[in-house]
Design goal:
Largest sheet: 4 strands, antiparallel
Oligomer: single chain
Protein name: DUF421 domain-containing protein
Organism: Hymenobacter aerilatus
CATH superfamily of the largest domain: bsu07140 like domains
Helix content: 40-55%
Number of helices: 8
CATH topology of the largest domain: CRO Repressor
InterPro entries: DUF421, UPF0702_alpha/beta_dom_sf
Membrane topology: Multi-pass membrane protein
Subcellular location: Cell membrane
Structural class: alpha+beta
Length: 228
Protein backbone atom coordinates (compact mmCIF):
# COMPACT_ATOMS: atom_id res chain seq x y z
CA UNK A 1 0.00 0.00 0.00
CA UNK A 2 1.28 3.44 -0.97
CA UNK A 3 1.51 6.07 1.77
CA UNK A 4 -0.85 8.34 -0.18
CA UNK A 5 -3.57 5.72 0.25
CA UNK A 6 -3.39 5.82 4.07
CA UNK A 7 -6.12 8.09 5.43
CA UNK A 8 -7.54 8.17 8.95
CA UNK A 9 -11.00 8.79 7.51
CA UNK A 10 -10.88 5.51 5.57
CA UNK A 11 -12.93 3.59 8.16
CA UNK A 12 -13.53 0.62 5.89
CA UNK A 13 -9.77 0.02 5.60
CA UNK A 14 -9.34 0.50 9.36
CA UNK A 15 -12.09 -2.00 10.18
CA UNK A 16 -11.81 -4.58 7.42
CA UNK A 17 -8.43 -3.96 5.78
CA UNK A 18 -8.01 -4.17 2.01
CA UNK A 19 -9.96 -7.44 1.78
CA UNK A 20 -13.65 -7.36 0.86
CA UNK A 21 -16.16 -7.13 3.68
CA UNK A 22 -17.23 -10.71 2.91
CA UNK A 23 -13.79 -11.92 3.97
CA UNK A 24 -14.70 -11.09 7.59
CA UNK A 25 -17.23 -13.92 7.51
CA UNK A 26 -14.64 -16.13 5.87
CA UNK A 27 -12.21 -15.36 8.71
CA UNK A 28 -14.80 -16.59 11.22
CA UNK A 29 -15.13 -19.87 9.31
CA UNK A 30 -11.36 -20.21 8.93
CA UNK A 31 -10.87 -19.57 12.64
CA UNK A 32 -13.42 -22.18 13.70
CA UNK A 33 -11.96 -24.76 11.32
CA UNK A 34 -8.36 -24.04 12.40
CA UNK A 35 -9.38 -24.09 16.06
CA UNK A 36 -10.88 -27.57 15.72
CA UNK A 37 -7.84 -28.88 13.84
CA UNK A 38 -5.47 -27.32 16.40
CA UNK A 39 -7.37 -28.95 19.28
CA UNK A 40 -7.00 -32.33 17.57
CA UNK A 41 -3.27 -31.76 17.02
CA UNK A 42 -2.76 -30.80 20.67
CA UNK A 43 -4.68 -33.88 21.78
CA UNK A 44 -2.47 -36.08 19.61
CA UNK A 45 0.67 -34.37 20.91
CA UNK A 46 -0.13 -35.74 24.38
CA UNK A 47 -0.73 -34.54 27.92
CA UNK A 48 2.77 -33.05 28.24
CA UNK A 49 1.60 -30.10 26.16
CA UNK A 50 -0.83 -29.19 28.96
CA UNK A 51 1.88 -29.21 31.66
CA UNK A 52 5.27 -27.52 31.95
CA UNK A 53 6.85 -27.50 28.50
CA UNK A 54 10.26 -28.77 27.47
CA UNK A 55 12.39 -26.89 24.95
CA UNK A 56 11.12 -28.96 22.01
CA UNK A 57 7.50 -28.62 23.12
CA UNK A 58 7.85 -24.85 23.45
CA UNK A 59 9.33 -24.71 19.95
CA UNK A 60 6.35 -26.65 18.61
CA UNK A 61 3.89 -24.34 20.40
CA UNK A 62 5.49 -21.23 18.90
CA UNK A 63 5.49 -22.87 15.47
CA UNK A 64 1.81 -23.79 15.78
CA UNK A 65 0.95 -20.16 16.50
CA UNK A 66 2.69 -19.01 13.33
CA UNK A 67 0.97 -21.66 11.24
CA UNK A 68 -2.60 -21.05 12.39
CA UNK A 69 -2.38 -17.26 12.07
CA UNK A 70 -1.76 -17.55 8.33
CA UNK A 71 -4.56 -20.07 7.86
CA UNK A 72 -7.06 -17.84 9.67
CA UNK A 73 -6.30 -14.37 8.31
CA UNK A 74 -4.48 -14.43 4.96
CA UNK A 75 -7.08 -14.47 2.15
CA UNK A 76 -4.80 -15.78 -0.60
CA UNK A 77 -3.67 -18.82 1.41
CA UNK A 78 -5.71 -21.99 1.54
CA UNK A 79 -6.49 -24.05 4.62
CA UNK A 80 -5.09 -27.36 3.39
CA UNK A 81 -1.39 -26.30 3.36
CA UNK A 82 -1.67 -25.16 6.98
CA UNK A 83 -3.31 -28.43 7.98
CA UNK A 84 -0.48 -30.36 6.31
CA UNK A 85 2.13 -28.26 8.14
CA UNK A 86 0.32 -28.86 11.44
CA UNK A 87 0.43 -32.60 10.77
CA UNK A 88 4.13 -32.24 9.94
CA UNK A 89 4.73 -30.60 13.35
CA UNK A 90 2.85 -33.45 14.96
CA UNK A 91 5.06 -36.05 13.26
CA UNK A 92 8.20 -34.07 14.12
CA UNK A 93 7.28 -33.87 17.81
CA UNK A 94 6.26 -37.53 17.99
CA UNK A 95 9.48 -38.50 16.23
CA UNK A 96 11.68 -36.50 18.60
CA UNK A 97 9.88 -38.04 21.60
CA UNK A 98 10.43 -41.52 20.18
CA UNK A 99 14.11 -40.75 19.62
CA UNK A 100 14.44 -39.41 23.19
CA UNK A 101 12.80 -42.59 24.51
CA UNK A 102 15.24 -44.78 22.60
CA UNK A 103 18.43 -42.84 23.34
CA UNK A 104 19.48 -41.19 26.60
CA UNK A 105 21.95 -38.98 24.73
CA UNK A 106 19.23 -37.80 22.35
CA UNK A 107 16.96 -37.11 25.32
CA UNK A 108 19.54 -34.85 26.93
CA UNK A 109 20.23 -33.01 23.66
CA UNK A 110 16.56 -32.50 22.81
CA UNK A 111 15.02 -31.95 26.23
CA UNK A 112 17.86 -31.10 28.60
CA UNK A 113 18.89 -32.80 31.83
CA UNK A 114 18.26 -32.42 35.54
CA UNK A 115 20.95 -30.57 37.53
CA UNK A 116 21.53 -30.09 41.27
CA UNK A 117 21.48 -26.49 42.49
CA UNK A 118 21.86 -27.29 46.22
CA UNK A 119 23.67 -30.26 47.78
CA UNK A 120 23.44 -30.80 51.53
CA UNK A 121 22.77 -27.15 52.27
CA UNK A 122 25.47 -25.75 49.96
CA UNK A 123 24.73 -23.75 46.80
CA UNK A 124 26.34 -25.11 43.64
CA UNK A 125 27.54 -21.74 42.40
CA UNK A 126 29.07 -22.88 39.07
CA UNK A 127 25.77 -24.57 38.18
CA UNK A 128 23.76 -21.49 39.12
CA UNK A 129 26.03 -19.34 36.97
CA UNK A 130 25.90 -21.75 34.02
CA UNK A 131 22.09 -21.84 33.99
CA UNK A 132 21.82 -18.10 34.78
CA UNK A 133 19.77 -18.59 37.95
CA UNK A 134 20.20 -15.93 40.61
CA UNK A 135 20.44 -16.75 44.28
CA UNK A 136 17.27 -14.77 44.98
CA UNK A 137 15.35 -16.71 42.33
CA UNK A 138 16.43 -19.98 43.93
CA UNK A 139 15.73 -18.70 47.44
CA UNK A 140 12.22 -17.70 46.36
CA UNK A 141 11.59 -21.24 45.14
CA UNK A 142 12.91 -22.69 48.40
CA UNK A 143 10.75 -20.35 50.47
CA UNK A 144 7.76 -21.43 48.38
CA UNK A 145 8.57 -24.99 49.53
CA UNK A 146 8.47 -23.75 53.16
CA UNK A 147 12.24 -23.94 53.61
CA UNK A 148 13.63 -21.34 56.01
CA UNK A 149 17.34 -22.08 55.87
CA UNK A 150 19.74 -23.95 53.59
CA UNK A 151 20.59 -26.58 56.20
CA UNK A 152 17.15 -28.08 55.65
CA UNK A 153 17.87 -28.83 51.99
CA UNK A 154 19.30 -32.20 51.02
CA UNK A 155 18.93 -31.57 47.29
CA UNK A 156 17.34 -28.89 45.11
CA UNK A 157 17.11 -29.79 41.43
CA UNK A 158 16.41 -27.79 38.31
CA UNK A 159 14.35 -30.18 36.19
CA UNK A 160 14.63 -30.43 32.40
CA UNK A 161 11.29 -28.64 32.01
CA UNK A 162 12.43 -25.66 34.10
CA UNK A 163 10.65 -26.54 37.35
CA UNK A 164 12.34 -26.89 40.76
CA UNK A 165 12.26 -29.99 42.95
CA UNK A 166 13.26 -29.71 46.61
CA UNK A 167 14.10 -32.56 48.99
CA UNK A 168 14.71 -31.80 52.67
CA UNK A 169 16.60 -33.58 55.46
CA UNK A 170 14.62 -35.41 58.12
CA UNK A 171 16.95 -33.85 60.69
CA UNK A 172 18.22 -30.53 59.30
CA UNK A 173 21.51 -28.98 60.35
CA UNK A 174 22.06 -25.23 60.85
CA UNK A 175 22.37 -23.24 57.66
CA UNK A 176 22.20 -19.89 55.91
CA UNK A 177 18.91 -18.09 56.47
CA UNK A 178 16.69 -17.75 53.40
CA UNK A 179 14.51 -15.02 54.87
CA UNK A 180 14.76 -11.62 53.15
CA UNK A 181 17.17 -9.18 54.78
CA UNK A 182 14.50 -6.49 54.50
CA UNK A 183 12.27 -8.46 56.89
CA UNK A 184 14.45 -7.97 59.96
CA UNK A 185 11.59 -8.72 62.36
CA UNK A 186 11.03 -12.19 60.93
CA UNK A 187 14.75 -12.92 60.68
CA UNK A 188 15.06 -12.08 64.38
CA UNK A 189 12.70 -14.97 65.21
CA UNK A 190 15.19 -17.53 63.82
CA UNK A 191 17.38 -19.26 66.38
CA UNK A 192 21.00 -18.31 65.76
CA UNK A 193 23.69 -20.91 66.48
CA UNK A 194 27.38 -20.76 67.30
CA UNK A 195 28.22 -21.83 63.74
CA UNK A 196 28.84 -19.44 60.85
CA UNK A 197 27.52 -19.91 57.31
CA UNK A 198 29.11 -18.48 54.18
CA UNK A 199 26.81 -15.70 52.97
CA UNK A 200 27.65 -16.55 49.34
CA UNK A 201 27.29 -20.35 49.13
CA UNK A 202 25.98 -21.45 52.53
CA UNK A 203 28.94 -23.63 53.53
CA UNK A 204 29.15 -24.04 57.31
CA UNK A 205 32.33 -23.03 59.06
CA UNK A 206 34.30 -25.59 61.01
CA UNK A 207 35.05 -25.07 64.73
CA UNK A 208 38.74 -24.62 63.83
CA UNK A 209 38.06 -21.94 61.21
CA UNK A 210 39.21 -18.42 61.96
CA UNK A 211 36.54 -15.75 62.18
CA UNK A 212 36.44 -13.82 58.92
CA UNK A 213 38.57 -16.38 57.07
CA UNK A 214 38.03 -17.62 53.55
CA UNK A 215 35.22 -20.07 52.80
CA UNK A 216 36.77 -23.40 51.80
CA UNK A 217 34.16 -23.79 49.04
CA UNK A 218 33.94 -20.38 47.31
CA UNK A 219 36.72 -18.39 49.02
CA UNK A 220 34.29 -15.68 50.19
CA UNK A 221 35.07 -13.85 53.43
CA UNK A 222 31.49 -12.79 54.15
CA UNK A 223 29.90 -14.88 56.92
CA UNK A 224 26.54 -14.85 58.69
CA UNK A 225 25.34 -16.59 61.82
CA UNK A 226 23.86 -19.95 60.86
CA UNK A 227 20.26 -20.49 61.99
CA UNK A 228 18.30 -23.58 62.76
Amino acid sequence: MEKEQIKLSDWQRLLFGDAPVEFTLEVVGRTLFTYVVLLLILRWLGKRMHAQLTVTEMAVMVTLGGIVSVAMQVPDRGLLPSVLVLLGCLLLQRGSNWLAFKSRRAEVVLQGDVVALVKDGVLQLPTLQHYRISREELFAQLRASEVWQLGEVARAYLEANGTFSVFTHDEPVPGLSLLPEADAALRATSDATQRQACARCGTLSQPTDHTGGHCRNCQSTHWEAAVC
